């Protein structure tokens, strides 16, 4: 299993997490870095889990990252989301 954090950005400002945190494009993983990680590790992964500090689904390139990963023999993709896209 490979865990990949696509962004540190989040659309929530939870008191217990980071109420003063500001989103910024520089907190998104660049696609060249993602490709390097994918090309190195995904051939050996059964599962790729998109999670981390941020909300992966608010990354405007999320679909691009998933489409790139689909070229590898990964049997399962997972994601943890807050499901709160306001």
Give structural attributes.
86 residues; alpha/beta; three-stranded parallel β-sheet; 3 strands
Structure description:
With 86 residues, the protein is an alpha/beta fold. The protein contains 2 helices and 3 strands. It has helices spanning 31-41, 62-69, and strands at residues 2-4, 47-50, 76-79. Strands 1-2-3 form a 3-stranded parallel beta sheet, with no helix packed on it. The longest helix has 11 residues, at 31-41. The mean pLDDT is 88.
The profile of the biggest β sheet is: 3 strands, parallel
Q: Roughly how many Å is the radius of gyration?
A: 13 Å
Q: Strand order within the widest sheet?
A: 1-2-3
Residues in helices, as a percent range: 10-25%
Tell me, briefly, the overall form.
Answer: elongated
Strand content: 5-15%
Helical segment tally?
2
Number of strands: 3
Mean pLDDT: 88
Structural class: alpha/beta
Elements, N to C (H/E): EHEHE
**Unreliable stretches covering 5 or more consecutive residues:** none
Give the end-to-end Cα distance, rounded to a whole number of Å.
31 Å
């Amino acid at each position: 299993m490979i865990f990949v954090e696509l962004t540190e950005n989040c659309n929530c400002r939870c008191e217990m997490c980071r109420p003063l945190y500001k989103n910024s494009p520089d907190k998104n993983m660049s696609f060249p870095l993602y490709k390097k990680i994918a090309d190195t590790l995904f051939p050996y992964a059964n599962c790729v889990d998109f999670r981390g500090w941020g909300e992966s689904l608010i990354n405007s390139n999320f679909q691009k990252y998933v489409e790139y990963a689909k070229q590898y023999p990964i049997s399962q993709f997972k994601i943890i989301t807050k499901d709160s896209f306001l």
